[in-house]
Amino acid sequence: MRSSTSTRAAALLAVALCSAACTVGDAGSTTPSSSEAPHDAASARSGAPVGPSSSAASRAADPLLAALNRAVERIPGQASIAVAGDGRVVTAGNVTGFPAWSTSKVPLVMAALERAEKPTATADMRAAITHSDNAAAEAIWDSLGPPAKAGLAVQQVLREGGDAQTVVQSSKVRPEYSAFGQTLWEDGPAATFAARLPCSPSGRIAAGLMREVDANQQWGAFGLRGAQSVGVKGGWGPGTDGAYVVRQLAVVQTPRGYTGLMLSARPADGSFASGKDALTRLAETVRAQLGALPAAPC
Which CATH architecture has domain 4-292? Predict the structure, then answer.
């Protein structure tokens, strides 16, 4: 287990790196072309994600939080997770400030669906989510108008989905990556948004596409045993130092309703493969805690 000193140092390093270059990331193919950043929290509460100030006693009082904290602590490097549902958010982790990368393609597609006369998935929408195709996502972004207008359209989708704080990045802060992909999306608000995906027409279409992702995103919570259904959207990319951040937005259906997830990791070796493995390990803890997850029907 890492010392608290080294954890704080790693968190400060991650924030500094993100501050130097934060833009929403793009996925695209099995060869990664984007990056992300973890979330900072170690206690549970309703609403926004919580910070790492809870005591050992409070962690012990919440078995779900304790299990998530143990899972995060076993990941080499930095990692975080949030689960949300029924007005409750439980977060665990040691970092914050990661870009959304291609997880941002979910609200992007929803923004386009909500402007369509007939809300059905187009070829670009399907490619953007199931294959994480960057060109398709950029085409959707352009269809929403000038960058500032497009950003507001995507941000409105987040607000309607219960994320009251995220500001969508509309200008490119790293020229090689999309603007929207560099949006800073914290785990708690993202999980809250994911939990409500099945509760709107555009969200149901997006969640359906998330259940059909290609092999390049079949890790983390994908295929979670014991759930009735799971939809996922991965996002990944290198920071300015070349080290990868890997993230996954997910919505899990159980007999009690829907739970939203956001999993994030910046592995110690900085590799995409280790990041995917870290999220799969975090998801295994989610599987073991299915009965304790906050969940609600629409």
Answer: 3-Layer(aba) Sandwich (3.40)
